[in-house]
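BUG-181 | component: ligand-complex export | severity: low

The export step for adenosine-5'-diphosphate jobs runs without errors, but we want the raw record kept on the ticket for reference. Input record follows.
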Amino acid sequence: MRMVLLGAPGVGKGTQATFLCKRHGWKHLATGDMLREGIAEGTLLGLKAKEAMSRGDLVEDDVILELIEKTLDGIKGAGYVLDGFPRTLAQARGLDEMLEKRAENLDRVVLLTADTEVVVERMVLRGRVDDTPETVRHRLEVYENSTRPLIGFYEPKGILRRVDGVGKIEEIHERIESALA
Ligand code: ADP
């Protein structure tokens, strides 16, 4: 299974990706986690990401695409869940090109949905460094402007499934499993 978890910041993509990967032995590929790791370790990637992340802006597409390409090279053949990538149309097109080169394709894109109040509350509770009220508001705008258009990109390919992201973690997990079947 090669799949994308799509949805607003705070909708629970990371939690659900962790569950899916544990159950099926897939790789959890979370660009946000990779970038935070780079920042913590002071790598070049971290340096490139730090400012944009602290503002709640997106890191440059080229930086992200290079990161994903390297990651895919390292996990040859394994199933995976992309969490937080792609986030722009340029990233989605870049991913398509990479997959085409590998003669692979995406099996599913699962869109996790929840009302804005729910995701804002979750982010406030989570309390990460980029979860301040202003940054949260800005990241939601960025989601609306740059990431939501991916729905229109994946829908015509017939691989998009919408899953209600409100409820108990286990319930949502089962909904996603059904959407993958
Ligand atoms: P959330 O899903 O709550 O937004 P993430 O960990 O996925 O959290 O992302 C945190 C931040 O990392 C984003 O606001 C952005 O600055 C950066 N980031 C993560 N993934 C990408 C990506 N694919 N493209 C650009 N920036 C990204």
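Assignee comment: Attached the raw record above. The first helix runs from residue 13 to 24.
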